[in-house]
Amino acid sequence: MNEHARPLTLSERADEIEEKMMHELAERVATKSVLFGMADGKIEMLNGAEFKKKNPDKYFLMGADPRLPKMPDKPTLIDFFKNRFASLNHLLQSATLALKNGHNEKIVLACLLHDIGVASFIRCDHGYWGAQMIEPYVDEEISWAVRMHQALRFFPDSSVGYEYPQMYINNFGADYKPEPYIVRDYERAKNHKWYMSARLICVNDIYSFDPNAKVNLDDFVDIIGRNFKQPEEGLGFDNTPSSHMWRTLMWPTRYL
Ligand SMILES: [Fe+2]
Ligand SMILES: [Fe+2]
Fold first, then answer.
1. Is the full-model pTM beyond 0.90?
2. For residue 85, what pLDDT is reported?
3. CA distance 69 to 64
């Protein structure tokens, strides 16, 4: 029977294109992790054994995905900025504003890195993920601030003129209430010696994208050089608690 006897639904069509792409990706097959499918509302994974039965001559990708920009053998933070982060503007604008406001380099770097979780990896709990990624390489104050901006952004602080963002009302609805773990982290952060560092990320967080602002990663290369301990072996190959996260960003479609 012709499997296309009825018109394909949009999602079936997408599956078909993806299947075709998988087959055309040179001789190696890129696989999607379960998490990627969940974003489409599906909990499923490729059955490797079944796939091999149908395609005995194919091998799974176990390294770089040729569809993505090539990464050097010893990648630096800048290489990730250029080749793996989907959007730099928000990060650069926040860091530029922090610089203009006269903050120290720790705060500027915290602003530059505060949303790398979103820009490269995952939205949910992005502050916690981002902090974990950078923790081995920056001053503890910087990763602490990146982690805590996740909670602080939902709570105003009139002492520095920070209000609950109108954008959150537009995006999440006026009745959105942060979950209890976020409230707890906010309460904890309030009395912490680095509270203001995390708060300054929120203050310098540009919530509305300004297409006219001139921002450039080159302006921050020196600050990164002085404040981010770039491992000699390259990010991902230096055996820290977050090396695997950088490797996953480098090779997101490896079979294992
Ligand atoms: Fe954020
Ligand atoms: Fe942000």
1. no
2. 97
3. 9
